[in-house]
Automatic annotation (TrEMBL):
PANTHER family: HYPOTHETICAL MEMBRANE SPANNING PROTEIN (PTHR40031), MEMBRANE-BOUND METAL-DEPENDENT HYDROLASE (PTHR40031:SF1). GO terms for molecular function: hydrolase activity. The chain crosses the membrane at residues 58-77, 89-109, 121-145, 157-176. This is Hydrolase. The keyword Transmembrane helix applies. It comes from Photobacterium ganghwense. It holds the Pfam family YdjM. Keywords: Hydrolase, Membrane, Transmembrane, Transmembrane helix. InterPro entries: Transcription_regulator, YdjM-like.
Amino acid sequence: MDSVTQAALGAAVAGMIAGRNCSPKVLLAGAALGTLPDLDVLISYGDPVSDMVNHRGFSHSLLVLLPFSFLLSWIWQTVKPTRMGLPRLWLLVAACLITHPLLDAFTSYGTQLLWPLALPVAISSIFIIDPLYTVPLLVCLAASLMWRDKMAHLCRVGVAISSVYLIWSLVAYSLVSHRVETQLADTPLAERPVFITPTPFNTLLWRVVVHDGAYYWEGLTSLLDKNTEVDFIAKNRGHWPIEERSNYLQMIERFSAGFVKYEQRDNTLVVTDLRLGILDYMPFQFSLAQQDEAEEWLLTDPVQLPTPPVKPKHLPALWLRLLGNQDIDANLCHVSECPHPVTFASN
């Protein structure tokens, strides 16, 4: 999740655990602890692909944060003793640190909760920025600064409301997953890998991607749709034209669980993570090879390509699609023909 959300969650969790000892300083400390795991973005691993796959690594691991929280709380209590005592202080520090990666695990990016074990968790039920999760935390924190005698109670209220919304995101994900599973049953795509993720800033409109070998099927579905069938569009995944598979390519493929697209743009070979983004706005696109004058491919150091600016026409279209207007699906996607069309039928 974004830094504002993580800071708000850390502050609210700190206030909730501090109880009668809650104060503006405690909230500030909680906000700092809540954003601490994301300081790994300051670490450079030497190239953009490594930076991508190693983010949310050791600094988000429960196996690292638990002992670190005890060390940090012991130093805190030794240097500047608090009225809470070491056990409650440790609980506060640990909760602020650990709720950060736990919340990140609900997004589609993936979080290495058990680093160094290679077991990333990506539930993908909430977008990385969702005001409906963050605003209750911010409102309750602001209110707690106004009514300081109710600080801890208001922090509990904020965490409770946001947690209920997070639970709702799981329910919404389950509803969409069941909808897609039902539609794909008894079709050639029934056993294909499926990726489902919410579109930006909401949990009503969802993006569905079905991996189909040389092609992938993409569609949007809203919980407000009257017709629950997803209008899938087939798109070409391309292929890797070089016999040698670079380490960078393998890293991207592992990180994305195979949901990648290979594309030649002029004399550049681009690999895109299909899970993250929407429409043509894919943030993780990397140039991995160049053609020479003889049109031979040469592997190059990875370069992350910029995401194109959002087209103004897409914003109202996405809003209408969220509200259940299924007539605009074709306008939101670039249609490409598929040589083996599939008929989707609900049971």
